[in-house]
Specification:
heterodimer; A: 242 residues; mainly alpha; Methane Monooxygenase Hydroxylase, Chain G, domain 1; 80% helix; 0% strand; B: 267 residues; alpha/beta; Rossmann fold; 6-stranded mixed sheet; 4-stranded antiparallel sheet; globular
């Protein structure tokens, strides 16, 4: 739709919309960095970096408040309609998703401080790092697709969540196996599992951001019919894979 | 499945009856093709808003519905407009009778230079709707109540209508329009000369009138269209570009020209 790229007659309206989007993108950048740093701190047992991630969440929370305030102001003063309205609604949702991801990064960092110095479960840290890279990539692409208003790219991000769930499943079973083998692994195993779950949730939020982009562009949310790959809720009945 | 409880049937029952049905309406002012092939069904007991930039044809189309364009010599109307299935451009239709059925309210309040009472009684008198003074009093009171102005004027019915405030004058004009028991009310930017409070009162009145009439309103205020109407039609360069539920038009318009116009972009 070529007309959509046209500027508003009232240029201050465009400036308001650009400002709110700039803040969301700034948030996206901070969240991506927080996740990468949290995973790196875990893998390298870097306590200082973990502390930095914990402290950095404040800035993400503050940006979320800024975005929500700007959105409320824009709705009150500009009465946005159609694409403008959908953009503001999507921005508010995306901001909430990013804020939550910031919390997950912070939580990973907190748990990192706990597990550092404890027993190590072989291969778990590396697997968590790989999983983290995978969802960071999803998040980055979801935000790029949002800025480019790219529906196809958003759909592709949504499809990738199944793989994130698979990685989590595998890790869950592996952690469970280690904990069953040696109860001394349980304390660390539980912490690592929470970390894995946090990372997996980031993938879900990236998916939700991609859905918001599709809503913003088309006016309709995609059907929630993607196959659910997280089957760990059934694992106790099935037992771990040996 | 029993045909009586099929979803299609329920959807049909839910739909309001068509009041005005326009097909392939063309309007020319001399050489100028002002309205191009407009086809639309306007529902009963619904507020339909016509929006679009100046010169888009929305007022021209509105004026076709009660044959106000007949008064313009160079104007030529083609196509059909049915009111309850009757062709309003049929030779046997008397435009004066038609305008009693299809009332109109204009941009600027235009009360007659007569008393408040006589303003409202004018239509019923010329159409012979009252047999005596008591009946006429009844009609005037009912119309003024429907115009949501009765309480403000009941003690001064003999004062001139022109002495009222702008918002009151407009509600008086609405009362005058409903006094002849019309089926359709046409409003051409009824609030553009009113302050926000008077506008809100007229909008509240429009919402009440919807219980009894099919209301068609031309407005330059898109927020007003969004506030008062259930259906919206967007006109551009003489074409009816998009017609749909108001909430759909303002959240996800289908045509990029509609999108550009309602979001305040240059189309």
């Amino acid at each position: 739709m070529s007309a959509m790229n046209d500027k508003h007659i009232l240029s201050s309206f465009d400036r308001d919309l650009e400002s709110i989007q700039a803040n969301v993108m700034k948030m996206g950048g901070l969240v991506e960095a927080a996740l990468a740093n949290a995973a790196a701190a875990l893998e390298n047992r870097d306590v200082e970096l973990a502390e930095q991630v914990r402290a950095g969440d404040k800035a993400i929370d503050a940006l979320d408040v800024t975005v929500k305030t700007e959105a409320a102001r824009l709705i009150a003063l500009r009465a946005p309609t159609a694409i403008d309205l959908r953009l503001v609604l999507a921005v508010m949702e995306i901001s909430s998703h990013l804020e939550r991801c910031g919390d997950y990064a912070k939580n990973i960092a907190k748990r990192t401080l706990t597990v550092t110095g404890g027993t190590e479960i072989e291969g778990a840290h590396g697997a968590l790092r790989r999983m983290s890279r995978y969802v960071e990539e999803m998040m980055k692409d979801a935000l790029d697709a949002y800025i480019q208003r790219d529906v196809a790219k958003s759909q592709e991000v949504i499809a990738r969540d199944a793989e994130a769930d698979q990685i989590y499943n595998t890790l869950f079973r592996s952690l469970l196996t280690h904990m069953m083998e040696d109860p001394r692994n349980i304390a660390v195993g539980m912490q690592l599992h929470f970390i894995a779950k946090n990372i997996e949730r980031v993938g879900d939020h990236a998916t939700n951001i991609a859905e918001q982009t599709i809503y913003m562009v088309t006016g309709e949310l995609p059907d929630d019919d993607r196959p659910k790959q997280d089957r760990t809720s059934l694992t106790l009945q099935e037992g771990p894979i040996q | 499945m029993n045909m009586y409880d099929s979803p299609e049937r329920e959807a049909k029952l839910d739909q309001k009856a068509t009041k005005i049905s326009a097909r392939n309406v063309q309007v020319y002012y001399g050489e100028t093709h002002a309205l191009k092939d407009v086809s639309v069904d306007i529902q009963d007991k619904t507020v339909t808003a016509f929006i679009g930039p100046s010169g888009c044809g929305k007022s021209t189309f509105l004026r076709c519905i009660n044959r106000m364009n007949d008064t313009i010599d160079s104007c030529r109307v083609e196509g059909t407009i049915l009111l309850e299935g009757e062709d309003i451009y049929d030779r046997r239709v008397d435009p004066v009778q038609l305008r009693a059925k299809v009332g109109m309210v204009f941009q600027k309040p235009n009360p007659f230079p007569k008393s408040i009472y006589d303003n409202v009684a004018y239509g019923p008198r010329i159409h012979g709707l009252a047999r005596n003074k008591a009946e006429l009093d009844d009609i005037v009171e009912r119309a003024l109540r429907r115009g949501a102005i009765w309480n403000e004027v009941k003690d001064r019915l003999q004062s001139p209508g022109t002495g009222l405030s702008g918002g009151q004058q407009q509600r008086l004009c609405i009362a005058r329009a409903v006094a002849t028991e019309p089926e359709v009310l046409l409003m051409d930017e009824p609030c553009s000369a009113l302050d926000p409070i008077a506008t809100a009162q007229v909008e509240e009145l429009i919402d009440e009138l919807r219980q009894d009439y099919s209301v068609v309103i031309v407005t330059h205020s898109m927020q007003q269209a969004a506030r008062v109407s259930q259906k919206t039609a967007f006109f551009h360069l003489g074409n009816l570009v998009e017609f749909g539920d108001t909430d759909q038009i303002f959240t996800r318009p289908q045509d990029s020209r509609t999108e550009s116009y309602i979001t305040g972009r240059i189309g």
